[in-house]
């Protein structure tokens, strides 16, 4: 009997040992090379109707038309790996390509014959190293953009964050953008000597474009005497630098609520207007907008998200903004995703925005020739705007149509400004894992 | 203007009170907090919408997007 008991106890102990959790041997840990974790494809189509374009100095009516279409496409790749010290490394690579048409750009030439379309390409790279045990992270990034009216823009950033024991996280990010702006003037402001080898009896018609290079058509006695491609106008550039320090604090408040505070300190210096934006004085004479060469901006944003019951999420956002040009704004955004099933949700949203005018803004033919700084760009005017729409998101565990397509999102919004600007935008996002 | 300043001050007090009244939430209690639609940042699909806003409006920033530069916007 005693022998039998010992056998049973021995078998029991063997089983307990077999199913017990063996102590982790940290020497067995192996680093993992960067591996593709996620691909995001985002496409949007934007369609705007407006007048009072900045190119025509805020002129109402057909010459001030400011209709825009923009087809934007982007791909973001996220690669994740773990190093020897168990730190998580994330490499994010992005590439964006936009094609736009802007009716106002045709009026860079006062006859409305300029090229009115253009492309923009913008690659990005960001690397982040995260120590999950210490709750810290550090990142570096770079950005490049070649755009409609920019020769180029180069951006660099560095970020760091630290989590505390009470589910809070403090982050700091510094960003610098170093832009070169093509000085594409309205045709009537081109210096006569910007085209070489022209006879004194020739007349020149410039075909300028905010999307590309400027060409000169040379006429003699009413006849085109020169191939404009052989007379490309050399366009000078001017710098614009933007330095931003972003501070943010996020906090989990309870099992259903979390919030954040984010503040940006922004300093811009250089050429802060655009050279093809006209201003018409109250005398009828026109010129190019002139804005100060420095601008300080201070936006502060607050987010509060709440999970109500099992199906409804309330996402709220408020931003206060003030800058050194006298522009002040308030933005309020509310979005309510409703989970129809755990994997399918519908998200109606509403955004309200109100801004005061910058002190240098005045409408068409209101500025005086004695004004030091002047613009008729309605982005700096006083107005309110409303935007509403809805998003649809589906993310079943076995994928949408195919296993690797994890999430499909569609979002539509309608935007209305009290300046008579109206726009529609539809966006698609596909996430592959 | 004074009324506007008071409203902002009260909002800041209320928001700060909410943040400091937090309770400790353990990892296994974060199923709702970790839901992708509870994220405290803007989502991928909002990127181009925010870009359009930065062109059409005079202010930008404090939303994870651009604060100026890198584009023809303000």
Fold and architecture overview:
- The complex is a heterodimer of chains A (about 425) and B (about 70).
- Chain A is mainly beta and about 425 residues long.
- Chain A has 1 helix and 22 strands.
- In chain A, a hairpin with a 4-residue loop joins strand 21 and strand 22.
- In chain A, about 35% of the residues are buried.
- Chain B is about 40% helix and about 0% strand.
- The longest helix of chain B has 19 residues.
- The model of chain B has no long low-confidence stretch (mean pLDDT about 80).
- The interface between A and B is large, with 93 and 48 residues.
Helix and strand arrangement:
The complex is a heterodimer of chains A (433) and B (74).
Chain A lengths: L1 H18 L12 E18 L18 E15 L5 E15 L14 E15 L4 E12 L2 E14 L4 E15 L20 E5 L7 E6 L2 E2 L12 E18 L2 E14 L7 E3 L5 E3 L5 E15 L3 E12 L4 E8 L2 E4 L2 E12 L27 E12 L10 E13 L4 E11 L1
Antiparallel strand pairs in A: 1-2, 1-22, 2-3, 3-4, 4-5, 5-6, 6-7, 7-11, 8-9, 9-10, 11-12, 12-15, 13-14, 15-16, 16-17, 17-19, 18-19, 19-20, 20-21, 21-22
Chain B lengths: L1 H19 L26 H10 L18
Keywords, separated by commas or semicolons:
heterodimer, A: 433 residues, 22 strands, elongated, B: 74 residues, mainly alpha, flat
Structure, briefly:
The complex is a heterodimer of chains A (433) and B (74). With 433 residues, chain A is mostly beta strands.
What would you report as the Rg of chain B, rounded to the nearest angstrom?
A: 17 Å
Strand count, sense and barrel status of the largest sheet of chain B are: none
H/E element string of chain A?
A: HEEEEEEEEEEEEEEEEEEEEEE
List how many beta strands of chain A DSSP finds.
22
The number of helical segments of chain B is 2
């Amino acid at each position: 009997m005693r022998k039998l008991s010992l056998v049973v106890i021995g078998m029991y102990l063997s089983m307990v040992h077999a199913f017990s959790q063996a102590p982790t041997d940290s020497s067995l840990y192996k680093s993992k090379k960067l591996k593709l974790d996620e691909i995001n494809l985002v496409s949007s189509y934007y369609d705007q109707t407006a007048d009072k374009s900045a190119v025509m100095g805020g002129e109402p009516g057909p010459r001030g038309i400011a209709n825009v279409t923009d087809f934007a496409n982007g791909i973001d790749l996220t690669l994740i790996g773990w190093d020897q010290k168990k730190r998580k490394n994330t490499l994010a690579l992005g590439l964006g390509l936009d094609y736009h048409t802007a009716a106002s750009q045709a009026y860079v030439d006062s006859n409305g014959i300029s090229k009115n379309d253009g492309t923009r390409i913008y690659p990005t790279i960001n690397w982040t190293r995260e120590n999950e045990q210490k709750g810290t992270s550090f990142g570096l990034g770079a950005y490049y953009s070649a755009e409609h009216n920019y020769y180029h823009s180069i951006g660099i950033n560095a970020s760091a964050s630290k989590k505390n024991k009470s589910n809070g996280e403090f982050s700091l990010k510094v960003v610098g953008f170093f832009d070169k702006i093509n000085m594409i003037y309205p045709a009537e402001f081109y210096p006569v000597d910007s085209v070489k080898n022209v006879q004194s009896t020739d007349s020149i018609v410039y075909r300028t474009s905010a999307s590309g290079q400027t060409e000169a058509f040379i006429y003699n006695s009413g006849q085109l005497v020169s191939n404009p491609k052989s007379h490309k106008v050399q366009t000078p550039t001017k710098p614009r630098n933007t330095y931003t320090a972003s501070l943010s604090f996020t906090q989990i408040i309870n099992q259903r609520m979390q919030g954040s505070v984010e503040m940006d300190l922004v300093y811009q210096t250089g050429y802060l207007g655009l050279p093809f934006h006209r201003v018409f004085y109250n005398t009828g004479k026109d010129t190019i907008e002139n804005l100060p060469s420095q601008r300080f901006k201070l936006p502060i944003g607050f987010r509060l998200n709440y999970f109500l019951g099992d199906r409804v999420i309330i996402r709220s956002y408020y931003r206060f903004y003030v800058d050194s040009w006298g522009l002040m704004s308030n933005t309020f955004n509310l979005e309510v995703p409703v989970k129809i099933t755990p994997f399918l949700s519908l998200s109606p949203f509403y955004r309200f925005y109100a801004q005061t005018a910058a002190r240098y803004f005045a409408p068409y033919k209101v500025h005086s020739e004695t004004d030091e700084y002047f613009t008729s760009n309605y982005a700096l005017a006083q107005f309110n705007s409303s935007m509403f729409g809805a998003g649809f998101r589906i993310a079943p565990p076995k994928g949408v149509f195919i296993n690797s397509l994890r999430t499909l999102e569609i979002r539509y919004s309608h935007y209305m400004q009290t300046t008579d600007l109206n726009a529609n935008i539809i966006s698609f996002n596909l996430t592959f894992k | 203007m004074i009324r506007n300043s008071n409203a902002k001050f009260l909002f800041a007090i209320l928001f700060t009170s909410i943040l400091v009244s937090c309770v400790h939430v353990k990892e296994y209690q974060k199923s709702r907090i970790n839901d992708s639609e509870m994220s405290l940042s803007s989502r991928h699909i909002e990127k181009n919408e925010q870009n359009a806003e930065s062109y059409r409006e005079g202010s930008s920033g404090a939303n994870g997007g651009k604060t100026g530069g890198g584009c023809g916007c303000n």
